[in-house]
Write a structure and sequence with these properties.
Elements (H helix, E strand, L loop, with lengths): L3 H13 L4 H11 L2 H17 L7 H20 L5 H4 L5 H12 L13 H20 L4 H16 L10 H12 L7 H6 L7 H9 E7 L6 E7 L4 H14 L7 E7 L5 E2 L2
Parallel strand pairs: 2-3
Antiparallel strand pairs: 1-2, 3-4
């Protein structure tokens, strides 16, 4: 059964996709996919209860989807074309389909474990991708091939362990890093009390109180981050900036971060 947070996030996603009927149809199909839901839930179980990591389940994957939609839309409004638009092999909605689908599947590999989970995510996602695209684009093999390829690139590239080349995959890389508020660390902090390697990720995420993505002053996308203490800078400098540096979308991003009530630091 889906949580209140999942349902609320799904409503936000569908509202943001109201101008893109095919993408909205695809997402509604994915939200109704019982197998995908079970996989997301189990990935979160392994991540939190077995490994002691932050949330990598259905809420996280939905939040990343929201982030990708925001960022890709901001680029679109600024007149910046996606890779498949530039290459004239697809349109903006195709890019949106690929990146949202990838967002909802990028951490499925956590079902297996942390190491190499991006490769495991691809293996687990391919049958779901094929099933979904056959449903939404039954007569258009070109779109199915392009969207599938982009989604796979985004999934396998979301940990910076593999070089990515499309703007779409670069957006997912950053969108994933932007989901770092204290909600992701709430459960693991509550159930794991024994200190262990990697705890800094939980404590730093717990210090992040707010992440806002909106139109920038000098660049199309601005990421504003507020935190309750300076430990949150670890999350920004060791996680988010690592992803931004490896992203094909870096040139379009500006980042401001700081402790609430203090002057924000400009990173980009």
């Amino acid at each position: 059964m889906k949580s209140v947070k999942e349902v609320a996030t799904e409503s936000k996603i569908l509202e943001k996709l109201k101008s893109y009927p095919k993408c909205k149809e695809m997402v509604k199909y994915l939200f109704a996919d019982v197998e995908l839901q079970e996989m997301q839930d189990y990935a979160n179980n392994v991540s939190i209860k077995r490994l002691g990591y932050n949330d990598h389940g259905p809420v996280h994957m939905r939040q990343v989807a929201i982030n990708t939609i925001k960022m890709l839309t901001l680029l679109h409004e600024a007149g910046i074309k996606t890779s498949i638009e530039t290459e004239e092999i697809g349109d903006f909605e195709d890019s949106l389909c690929a990146i949202v689908m990838a967002s909802l599947m990028h951490d499925l590999g956590m079902m297996i474990g942390r190491q190499g989970h991006e490769e495991m995510s691809v293996i687990l996602a391919i049958p779901l991708i094929d099933k979904t695209l056959n449903k939404v684009f039954p007569e258009d093999i070109h779109k199915r091939v392009v969207i599938k390829s982009l989604a796979i690139e985004a999934i396998i590239g979301h940990m910076t362990s593999r070089k990515i080349h499309s703007l779409e995959a670069g957006i997912l890389l950053i969108a994933d890093g932007c989901d770092m508020t204290k909600g992701r660390a709430r459960i693991p902090l509550a159930i794991h009390n024994t200190p262990k390697v990697g705890d800094i990720h939980k404590y730093s995420a717990n210090a992040i109180t707010r992440v806002v993505i909106h139109h920038g002053e000098k660049k199309p996308i601005q990421i504003d981050i507020e935190m309750s203490s300076e430990v949150g800078f670890f999350q920004i400098e060791e996680v988010l900036l690592t992803k931004v540096d490896a992203s094909t979308a870096k040139q379009y991003i500006e980042i401001y971060a700081g402790v609430t009530g203090e002057e924000k630091k400009c990173y980009l």
